[in-house]
């Protein structure tokens, strides 16, 4: 099922004014979006990681964090779940912060694969060069860039870095880690394939283990919104005030996320919602509005590509009602008259 945009067509498409409406209005709109999709039951919970299949599919949280620090949590916004693929965007940001734009770009590309997130074919078709850091092969190659003399140190760097984005110490969900570590043959195969092409330094099994841990970090929709809002705020966490990465890193990361954040549905998402966003198979989704803030959802039922359906609906709704769509504009008042004249003269000519 490709996302059905008719679910929110009655919501007026507000155009960005450069800032969010006041706190009260944002809060009202967050509550409205949460209530509107609360009864939506389409999609299936991920089951390829055994422990994820056991989650309560009814959970539904929504959160907005403003760059000014304003907080809006609705429903199960404080329910903990494993971050999964959403970790990829933050580890990528840490990698660019550490190694710079050019070097990371040489190692991992920036174009969409058009194929599933765990595709082996995508790697084979590209001479073993991972096409982007939002699919598993590229994410494993990105995790390998984390500084540290050992895998333990690299893992610590990932955990600390993602904790700085979240503004609180994040911890590993041991049950999710054990479940995934016992069933991640495909990711280990990707690690070894990267190695066979000479594109992974270090022991593939150890790097995939760090990657598996990063995916099992426990977060809430509220945390994801804080993490996303840090990328919206030029790299400064709007809740703690700590600088986590540079503004240039935020720009690079959001561009890559816009192209590939919703797997092979990234174009559909950008067309309908118009925001850089990243999803994960446990049901999380975070969309970033540069200069304004971030919206995050959590709801475990997914579409076939692995994207949370209710989170897409609620965030799509808020993209319209909060005026977040990067591509939406209206003629400036000074030009509105000219636009009318020009369309009238077009009409006269025809
Ligand atoms: N840990 C998951 C995997 O590697 C993440 C997948 C996802 O969220 O897309 O398969």
TrEMBL record:
<keyword id="KW-0007">Acetylation</keyword>
<protein>
    <recommendedName>
        <fullName>Glutaminase</fullName>
        <ecNumber>3.5.1.2</ecNumber>
    </recommendedName>
</protein>
<feature type="binding site">
    <location>
        <position position="180"/>
    </location>
    <ligand>
        <name>substrate</name>
    </ligand>
</feature>
<feature type="binding site">
    <location>
        <position position="136"/>
    </location>
    <ligand>
        <name>substrate</name>
    </ligand>
</feature>
<feature type="binding site">
    <location>
        <position position="263"/>
    </location>
    <ligand>
        <name>substrate</name>
    </ligand>
</feature>
<comment type="similarity">
    <text>Belongs to the glutaminase family.</text>
</comment>
<feature type="binding site">
    <location>
        <position position="281"/>
    </location>
    <ligand>
        <name>substrate</name>
    </ligand>
</feature>
<feature type="binding site">
    <location>
        <position position="187"/>
    </location>
    <ligand>
        <name>substrate</name>
    </ligand>
</feature>
<feature type="binding site">
    <location>
        <position position="85"/>
    </location>
    <ligand>
        <name>substrate</name>
    </ligand>
</feature>
<dbReference type="InterPro" id="IPR012338">
    <property type="entry name" value="Beta-lactam/transpept-like"/>
</dbReference>
<dbReference type="GO" id="GO:0004359">
    <property type="term" value="F:glutaminase activity"/>
</dbReference>
<keyword id="KW-0378">Hydrolase</keyword>
<dbReference type="Pfam" id="PF04960">
    <property type="entry name" value="Glutaminase"/>
</dbReference>
<dbReference type="InterPro" id="IPR015868">
    <property type="entry name" value="Glutaminase"/>
</dbReference>
<feature type="binding site">
    <location>
        <position position="211"/>
    </location>
    <ligand>
        <name>substrate</name>
    </ligand>
</feature>
<comment type="subunit">
    <text>Homotetramer.</text>
</comment>
């Amino acid at each position: 099922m490709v996302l059905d945009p008719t679910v929110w067509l009655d919501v007026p498409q507000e155009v960005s004014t450069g800032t969010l409406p006041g706190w009260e209005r944002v809060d009202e709109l967050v509550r409205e979006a949460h209530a509107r999709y609360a009864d939506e039951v389409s999609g299936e919970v991920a089951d390829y990681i055994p422990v994820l299949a056991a989650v309560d599919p009814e959970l539904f949280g929504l959160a907005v964090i403003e760059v000014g620090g304003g907080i809006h949590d609705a429903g199960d916004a404080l329910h903990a779940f494993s971050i999964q693929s959403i970790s990829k965007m933050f580890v990528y940001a840490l990698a660019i912060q550490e190694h710079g734009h050019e070097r990371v770009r040489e190692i991992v590309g920036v174009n969409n694969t058009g194929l599933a997130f765990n595709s082996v074919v995508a790697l084979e078709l590209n001479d073993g060069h991972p096409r982007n850091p939002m699919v598993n092969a590229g994410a494993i190659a990105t995790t390998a860039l984390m500084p540290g003399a050992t895998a333990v140190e690299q893992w610590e760097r990932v955990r600390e870095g993602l904790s700085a984005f979240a503004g609180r110490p994040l911890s590993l969900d041991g049950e999710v880690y054990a479940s995934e570590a016992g069933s991640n043959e495909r990711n280990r195969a990707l690690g070894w394939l990267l190695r066979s092409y000479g594109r992974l330094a270090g022991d593939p099994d150890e790097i995939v283990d760090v990657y598996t841990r990063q995916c099992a970090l426990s977060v809430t929709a509220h945390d994801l919104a804080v993490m996303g809002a840090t990328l919206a705020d030029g790299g400064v966490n709007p809740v703690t005030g700590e600088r986590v990465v540079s503004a240039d890193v935020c720009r690079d990361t959001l561009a890559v996320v816009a192209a590939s954040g919703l797997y092979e549905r990234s174009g559909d998402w950008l067309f309908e919602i118009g925001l850089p966003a990243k999803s994960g198979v446990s049901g999380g989704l975070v969309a970033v509005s540069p200069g304004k803030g971030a919206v995050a959802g959590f709801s475990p039922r997914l579409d076939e590509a692995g994207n949370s359906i209710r989170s897409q609906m609620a965030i799509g709704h808020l993209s319209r009602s909060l005026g977040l769509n990067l591509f939406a504009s209206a003629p400036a008042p000074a030009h509105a008259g000219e636009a009318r004249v020009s369309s009238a003269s077009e009409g006269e000519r025809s």
